[in-house]
From TrEMBL:
Record Pfam families: LEA_2
Protein keywords: Membrane, Transmembrane, Transmembrane helix
Residue stretches spanning the membrane: 38-60
This protein's name: Late embryogenesis abundant protein LEA-2 subgroup domain-containing protein
UniProt topology in membrane: Single-pass membrane protein
Span of domain Late embryogenesis abundant protein LEA-2 subgroup: 98-137
GO biological process: defense response to other organism
GO cellular component, one term: membrane
Superkingdom classification of source: Eukaryota
Record organism: Salix udensis
Transmembrane is among the record's keywords: yes
Amino acid sequence: MAKRDQVRPLAPAAKRQSSDEEGACPHHKKRGRKCLKFWVSVTAIFVVLVTAVIALRFTVFRVKDPVIKMNGVTITKLELSNGSTPKPGVNISLIADVSVKNPNFASFKYSSTTTTLYYDGEMVGEARNGPGQARAKTDHEDECFCGYHPGQDHVEP
């Protein structure tokens, strides 16, 4: 008996194409185009979002200073000698109505505040208030109680 080598033939070489050839697999080209389109669109969306955030930052969300306004002063204790001048040594008590307007789109907190009362260029009274919070786009009103004692070196808050 003669030995026969059983050999299987390889697939025909004419039907095989290497990956280096131009038209190797048409679906590879489509996948590459889809991937390119995806990343171009992601980059374009990112650029638009960054531009919008920068535009909002410099227009709408620009931080503005709060507006502090004295609405009124009420004198609660005052004695006059001849109708226009206070009696010597008399105590004067004032209530100052102060409002803080927050023009920003965000609230802010402030620490304790000091209101100073001047008369004729000289400090004659001072009032201290506690900390508070000014909400966004609102006014915050506060009252300051201030006492002045003529002839004394200290001021009653």
